[in-house]
Structures are given as structure tokens and as C-alpha cells.
Amino acid sequence: MTTQFDPQALAEHYAKATPQEILSLALEHFDDLWLSFSGADDIVVLDMAWKLNKDIKVFTLDTGRLHPETYQFLQHVREHYGIKLEVLSPDHLALQKYVSEKGLFDFYQSGHGECCGIRKIEPLRRKLSGVEAWITGQRRDQSPGTRSHVPVIEQDQAFGNDANPLIKFNPLANYSSEEVWTYIRMLEVPYNTLHERGFASIGCEPCTRPTLPNQHEREGRWWWEEATQKECGLHAGNLIAKN
Amino acid sequence: MTTQFDPQALAEHYAKATPQEILSLALEHFDDLWLSFSGADDIVVLDMAWKLNKDIKVFTLDTGRLHPETYQFLQHVREHYGIKLEVLSPDHLALQKYVSEKGLFDFYQSGHGECCGIRKIEPLRRKLSGVEAWITGQRRDQSPGTRSHVPVIEQDQAFGNDANPLIKFNPLANYSSEEVWTYIRMLEVPYNTLHERGFASIGCEPCTRPTLPNQHEREGRWWWEEATQKECGLHAGNLIAKN
Amino acid sequence: MTTQFDPQALAEHYAKATPQEILSLALEHFDDLWLSFSGADDIVVLDMAWKLNKDIKVFTLDTGRLHPETYQFLQHVREHYGIKLEVLSPDHLALQKYVSEKGLFDFYQSGHGECCGIRKIEPLRRKLSGVEAWITGQRRDQSPGTRSHVPVIEQDQAFGNDANPLIKFNPLANYSSEEVWTYIRMLEVPYNTLHERGFASIGCEPCTRPTLPNQHEREGRWWWEEATQKECGLHAGNLIAKN
Amino acid sequence: MTTQFDPQALAEHYAKATPQEILSLALEHFDDLWLSFSGADDIVVLDMAWKLNKDIKVFTLDTGRLHPETYQFLQHVREHYGIKLEVLSPDHLALQKYVSEKGLFDFYQSGHGECCGIRKIEPLRRKLSGVEAWITGQRRDQSPGTRSHVPVIEQDQAFGNDANPLIKFNPLANYSSEEVWTYIRMLEVPYNTLHERGFASIGCEPCTRPTLPNQHEREGRWWWEEATQKECGLHAGNLIAKN
């Protein structure tokens, strides 16, 4: 990482920039740069990044409970773009212990925290330790409760620290769901077929459901919990920042 | 029908009225008043009318090609509201001739006109002949191409005429899809389960498909045809009025 | 019909004949011969007949409540074999009256008799009046309770009478379900995709369900009724014969 | 393990015994006895064992690619029987390496060997090392190619060895699919809902498909491969024994 990279100043400077301008900045400044892809409508940020640099490095978190359609889509993306797609899995000893003790649907009773912690956060932490910068598909309009202040560039305090600073790019922060879908349809970008069956936001199979017409997409995630807790922890900074 | 009923003047007077005010007007003025229910999100107008008058007369057009879920919903509505629900079927001789000659999916080649003519328009015409007034769930926002000028009250020139005037009430003309769905969710009105699988607008099974997030609901109907032809003829006046 | 055709004597003579031999006999003796096709695994008898005579006349009963997959299959068969496929519909006045009065799922309470009577028997009677002979896909193994004595050839007493004799051919009477499916797979005959989702026997959508492994196919039909009533009336002779 | 346990002699002695008699023998002789449950119709052996001993120890292999319905069924079984259900997961480092390099559907190209090796065999080997005896739901009729000689009791040469002998009980070896399903229906044993949708044999989601009526259940597994390779390796002894 170049020492002169000042995320706060750049976030202000790029506050109104296009996703492509933000991605270009990221690609220019960092070699050890990874794009986190979830298999949902963040395909847009992957498509944009890939068009700027065919060697973009991409990883995804295979929690072991994704929809069959999501696994198919991940493979389709891998082949369509000719990228390698690093697939991260949860630590099996922690997973076995959790599931054997609490069963396969504990999150409905105890909340999604422990399960997301094992299936998503630990593998992500493992991946990001030592990485200089990452790119996400987060948008402010995805969650009025927790994402309304997402900056386009930030220093990641959840997975990095002052000794090992980690820069986080959110090039779609200002994009609306409508813009994302206009992009997908106009540019004929591949998408997860679950989006044809009422799914807007997509996560793990037991924790995602389709939404009704005009229902906010976040209501399709962890619907048995309070809106302010509808983050898996991948973007823990959103919650920290609010306190 | 009371002779002094002036649809054009009342349409202006009620242009900004609530759906309930328009329904009250209809119920006050007409005994021979029928609500046309399609088994989709027009459940809202049925719910509103029923709350004003438990004896509201309702009919539906069973084209013989509805989704299994729509038949289940029609029955659920019949039982939930305790209404009779008149179910109209297409003339079997015309239907047999058409389907035997042109097959079961002719509309994909020849357009939906002939099929809708037999399965929807003829039974509707049969029903409305001799009826004084009817109520629909049409909304302006359902179809930018054909419904953007739907008045709240009109004289129906498609199914009535000067000798046998027919008044048509469109109490939801000004309602948005968002308002419809807020009503359904807030008042816990029953809805067609297809709405949980990506369907916004619902018609016959082979001629309806789910829409993607942020795609206009009308793109889920007769998608192989031009936008300006996306009316089955039930609301033929919308097309006449535009010429 | 040739006067010398003696169904009982021929039934004995052809008791062990192949389906093709029985079909050849039918095709030789009758011009006014119709094959009744339901859109299920009776595709085998249609395939056999068509291979003997490309001009085989075929009809089907569109009850108005078939599965979407069955409508697609009927169309596929129409195109694959290049046949006309006469599609019969229920009398709309009788249908409207029944459904408006008793609802769309009355059969679950009152039994399937009245509904089958309107949707299947009346159109079939209309079709067979004046016809000399028809071919079905009935098999003895389809229903231990009602079909175990189906002869390969019979005089139809349910839809014909002595003044207007009607001959009924059941070329698959001796075939087992296993033979039917071996035929379909070996000869790559098209089949209803419902058969890929656990459906063995296929009728109307609300009155058909998939069966479990090793469950008799007839348990997927009118499962809320007694086994001895599991006939829609198309083959009413089976019930008459037992008394 | 008691030293005098002679699997070969007992296999002969119990060759015609009921599943319950074989299970009783297993429960008598071994404390460190585990039942392997796959989430399919081997629920029958679990039900039988649990009725003999409510403390029966059960494990399952969560490959990370099971059907959502199978995860639901595993949880249902856990709650219905009040058992702990040990859930084993594949080593995440091996899994990440395999999937990142070869993609998420490599088995369609390279065969299922490597994937089953990582997702099933390694966790099973880990579990069985040090265990004295295990119980499976294998049946001879499941696979004419590979399981036709499965004994009711055997010394497991695939996961045990002479230094650490492992006894394997196959109490359903002589049972037919028909008997399994009669047991499930008569005793109202819970079953995986996939069995209601045409699935007979059930494994991982991408490697399992429904079968047609009268198609052998094994044709629903790894259908792109030769019949003689349709074993995941859990019962590797079946292949060894044939050479």
C-alpha cells in the first residue's frame, strides 16, 4: 500500500464519482486488491471491475448453505468472465462443533450472529488479514437502518487496524437498486436466476426469502430479527460507525 | 340506473377522491353493480368494496388457463369474504374450434388477441350486457403505454352503448403499486401466493411471467408483444381513447 | 362399422396379442376411429398407433384445470407427431352454474363425480355419440380396484348402446407400468415433464399428486376418496362390469 | 470390542435375520457404535435402532452441497427423535483448494471421485478412526452393479484394518425398496420431502436427480457416469470385494 493513500480525503473527493472512477482509483493504487462477490446483484461491481482489468482478483464466501441456484451462478460467473474465483469455506472444526451442538437452524432461535460468525466472518477475516484493499458491492439504499452512510472509500476498522491498514472501496454506495437493474438488463450482464423468482437480496438459503412487490429488499433477509441487526458482519463497520 | 348520473362531471369532481369515496358513490347510485376481480392485486378494491357493503356482487373470468395458485386464491377469497363469486367460462364451441385448429399456444405466434377474445372478452361482454355499472381494479401506473389516462369514473364505450349505457368505476386509478402493497400488508389482506414468487401483474399462466427487481410489472405480461398492445380487451376503452 | 365385428370373440382371440396387433385390427376395421389421449403415459398407445397410421385421429379432454405442464405436453405432441389433436371443452353454461354455486374445489367435499361429469364425461359423450370405435390407454395394472378385468376389446355400454354400438379398444390392457416406461425410454418417446417430478398417473391439477417411491400410482388420484371410486367415468364400464 | 466377535460367522448366522435382530446384536456387542444417516430413506434403520435404544449415536456427513430439503429433514429427525446428531464437515483447506482450482461443478467433467473424497470420505475416515462399529442403511437392491452382495455384517476393510478392526452392520441388506416404503408409510416415519417430488435415492444436490416411474433409483445418482462407479466411497468395500 502506498503510504500517501488518505481514504477520508479521497472519500470526500470521490463522493460523487462514478463507480468506474472509484474502481479505477482502487486498481491504480493497489495490487493486493480483492473484490468480494456474493453471487447476487453485486455482479454489477464485478462486471465493471472486470471491464477495467481482466485480471481482477475475486473471492466468494461459500457458507455451505447457499441456494443451488447461487452455486450455479458462481460457476457461471467463473466461466463467463474467465476468472479464477477463490472460494472460501468455514473452519470445519468450529462448524462441526456449532452444528452438532445447536442443530442446523439455530439462527432462527438464537439470532444469526453465531452462524454468520463461523460461516462468513471467520473465513473473511482469514482472507483479509494481510490484504491491502478490498472492493464490495454495498449500496446505501440496501438497508435504510444500517447502510445509509456507507462512504465510497473508507479505512476498514473491522478487518484491518492501524498496524495493518485495510482500505475498503464501495463503488456502488450511491447507486440505487433501480440503477443496478438497469445496468444488468441494458448490458445483459448474467444474473442469479433467483432474481426471477422474487428474490431481490440474496444470502444463505435458510436466511433469505423472496419479497412481495414493493417490499424493501432487506425484508427478505433475517426477517425474524430487528432491522438494525440485519448485517452479517461482513460490513461490521456500518454498525460501529453508528454508535 | 339513475338518469341524472353524469360520469364525466363526476369523474372531474372525484378526480382526487379516495377509492372508498368512489366506491361509496357507486354503491349509492347502482344496484346492478358488479365488481370484476382477476385474482391478483385487485384484491384491494374487492376488500375496500366489501368493507362498505358485505353484499357486493363479484365476478371473475375463468379463462381455463389460470395458474393453479390463482384458482386456489379465488376459492380462498370466496371463503374469506363469504361472497358467492360468479365464475364465467368461455363459450365451449368457439374455444374448441380455436384450440383444435390453432393449438394450445397460438398466441405466441399470432398475438394474444384471438385467445383473449374467446377466453375473456366474450364472457365479459355476455356478463356486462344488461348490467348498469361495474367496478375494476385498474390503475394508471400499471401500464404507462395504455393506462396513464384512466379516469376514476367513465362511461364504458367498449361494453356499453348509448342505448344501454354502462358506467365503469376505477377507484384505484390514482393508486400506485406501492400504495396497493402497503394496503395489503398493513391490513393483512389475503393475496395470491404467486406474488411471493416474483409475480407482480397476474393473468393467464402461459401469458404471465415474473419480473426482475425494479422491472415494470407490465413487462411480465405478453412479453413477446409491443407495449402498446398489452391490454386483453377488458379495458378496450383505454385503447379507443388514445386514438 | 362392419356388421360382422364381434368384440367378445375378438377379445378372446386377441387376449394375448401385442398392442400393435390390436391397433392394427382397429385400424383395419374402422374408419371412424378415434384415439383418446390424456397427456400422460398413454403417449405410448398414441406413439404405437401413429407408427401404424400417420393419420390417426386423436382427441383430448381439456377440463380447464390441467397442469401447465400438461398443456405444454399436449402442444408438444401435436407438433412432434404432426397431428391435429381435437381439443374438447366442457359446456360453459353447466360449468359456470356448477362453479359459481359450489366453488372451485367442491370435489374435495362432495366427491369428484359432479366435476368430472361436467368437465370430462359430458364432452366425451358429445364426442363419442356417432363415433364407431375408440382407443384408450387403459391398463389393468393401473387400478387393482377397478381395472383388473379390462379386456383388450369390448363393446362400450357406457357411451354406446345396442342401437348405436360403440367398440372400445384397450391395446395396453395387458401392459405393465414397467413395460410402458421401458417403451418410453427405449424409443425416446416424448413424455409429460410431470413424470420427472414424482407423478405417475396424471389427471386434473387439483386431483393429482405425486406418489412416494413404491406407492401405487392410483394413490396419486382423488386420494381423499375410496379406491373403488377412483374412476372419472371415462371408463364407466369398468364399474358397471363389476356389479 | 469384544475379541470373540466373528463377523463372517455371524454374517452367515444372521443372513436371514430381521433388521431388528441384527441391530440388537450390534447394540449388545458394541458401545462405541455409530449409525451413519444420510437424510434419505435410511431413516428406516435409524427408526428401528432408536426404538431399540433411545441413546443410539448418529452422525451425518454435511457435504456443504445438500438440498435445502435435506437440511430441513436432518433437523426434523434431530428434533423428532430427540437425538444429538453429530454433523461432520469437510476439511476446509482441502475443500477451498479443490473448489478454487477446479470450480464448483468439476465432478461433471472429472467424475465424482475427488469431490466425494473431500466432502464425504475424508470426514467419514476421520470419524471412523477409533470407532469400533458402525451401522449403515445399505440395501442390496439399491445398486445391482455394486451392492448385490452386501452382507448383513462385515469387517470393514475400507475404513478399518487388522490392527484397528472396524465392524460394519448393514441391517437392511436384504430389505427391498418396497419394504422400506411400506415401513415408512405404515409406521408413519418422517421422510425427506424430496421423496414427494420424484427422488428415490438422495445424495448431494448437484449429483442427484428424480427418476422416472419404474426407473431404477440408482439412475438418479451420478447419471453421467458408468453404473459400476456409482458409489461415493462410503462403502468402498463393495468395490474392493468385487475385484
How would you describe what is shown here?
4 copies of one chain form a homotetramer. The relative contact order of chain A is 0.18. Chain A has a 6-stranded mixed β-sheet with strand order 3-2-1-4-6-5, sandwiched between helices. Chain A has helices spanning 7-13, 19-29, 43-52, 68-81, 92-102, 107-110, 113-128, 177-186, 236-242, and strands spanning 33-36, 57-61, 86-88, 133-135, 153-155, 167-169. Chain A is an alpha/beta fold. The first copy, chain A, has one domain: HUPs (Rossmann fold), CATH 3.40.50.620. In chain A, helix 2 crosses helix 3 (43-52). Chain A starts with 6 loop residues before the first helix and ends with a helix. Helix content of chain A is 37%, strand content 9%. At the A-D interface, helix 4, strand 3 and helix 5 of A face helix 4, strand 3 and helix 5 of D.
